[in-house]
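Bumping with the actual sequence this time:
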Amino acid sequence: MGQAGRAAPLNLALLLGALAFAGSLDGYWTNAGQSVVVRIADCDNGMFCGTVVTATDEARADARRGGTENLIGTRLLTGVAAQRSGGWRGTLFVPDLNRRSTAELRLLDENRLRIRGCAVGKILCRSQVWYRIAPPTDASE
């Protein structure tokens, strides 16, 4: 078997792995401070939503000060759809500010998700990395 013959199975395996990785948005994610856990799942014909399933007392208090009485069950991400560029785009709700913005999501690897929210066009933007975790035992979903 020549070089090309040995490389074909490896290339196919890498391609299949990349395809599986590209669709792995579904799951439980937490922010860097581990103050909230969000369940991202298909919620509307191939579009994803992200709902808060657990939150620290401090995160709940911050949300209340912003006007969100019940943080648990609040959808932080809505209408998230795949983009041709390989990422996702949708709407982000920031409960402690009581504001919605456009959101761009991109998997950095299997367990890290960068979420970028922009309030005014692409001028006022902030990014945050979320980390994939196992389903929490105290999740309300």
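The tokens above came from a reply further down the thread. DSSP finds two helices and eight strands in the chain.
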